Amino acid sequence: MTYTTYIHIGHGKTGTSAIQSALALAKHDLRLRGIIYPVNEYTEKKAVEFKITSGNWVPDISLPEQLLEAKQHYGSSFNSVVFSSEQLFWKINQISEIPINQRREINPHIILAVREIEEMLSAEHQQKVKRGGECCTFDEFISKVNFKSSHHTHAASVIDDAKKSGIKISIINYSTERRSIINKIFEIIGANEAVPAELHTKIVNRSLSRHELSLIRSINQFFNKKIGTGTSDALVQELPQIAGNKGTLALEAKQLIYEVNKQSLAAINSNLPIGSMLRTSPEQQSEATSLSTPETYMHEETEHQSTALAIKTLSSILPRFTPPKLSAESIDIIRDVALKDGLPTELRIELLKLTIFYRPNASRLKKILKQTINNLSSGKSRRAI
Hints:
alpha/beta; 18 helices
């Protein structure tokens, strides 16, 4: 049988963490089928525990070098090798650096997943907030990137380069295959029957809810990226059942997104089956939900859960956190946000404490903090009765 190098490149936010968990869990079954998924012990342990990983690609080694080494190491014992990492999405064009005769030997097969453009931009914003220290809103993020999706632009480039180089590429629309993405990947690598059963009920690296997104943005703004990432990871891993939020935009903004990315969408769609093509215009707006529905009460309950866990996580992290030196203007901003109406009480308390740290003589803020803590304690006591 011909040796094949499968290279699953994402892109990001298309179920990559779940796919990597599935590959790690199925590692031994894959070997029995002549398929090797080379992964170090640390990454494998995280993956089988359904934690976030970057897959099995080693960033310190160039992609061409790693693919050629894999062929040399595994080629005589296995029919194929599988690499999976969303980081490879931005590096896959390095394959063209491999001489044609060696490229034929490794026989690369790229697996690319794409996603509806509105969903992808929302997911990209989420990821930048969750792990990149971003503080801006979704609207601000869209304006910052000039309504352009770098993922769709690059996906179109990857497809074009693969076709010109004669490299096989399989393209999956994650938005239509969300529930079967793992099965699709295993089908492509020839291991349909090796899909781990436990993955069918697991959620790996979910999106944040609207409330959680607001919390992490505030934490990023007033502390730092590391604390925001730690709190975000705790929310995702300890409260996997909470539904994520898809960012919403005005119709005019949506239309501009499709106009700006028109060429990329057309290039991708020309390589997808008719029933799996990406939308090229905004979908119709759904009617607003009544504020008194049962889902609203469920939503309020999940907000309480998220806030409580965020505060618990902050409480464990902050004692090790040395607040940076801030200007008087920055401290004023923290104080003003702490005093804003509608802020979650627990977060208000943390921001008041931070302001008082910088201004220990702020007697008025100390009184407000004391009153806020008393109000929170009273509210919890009333709910417990």
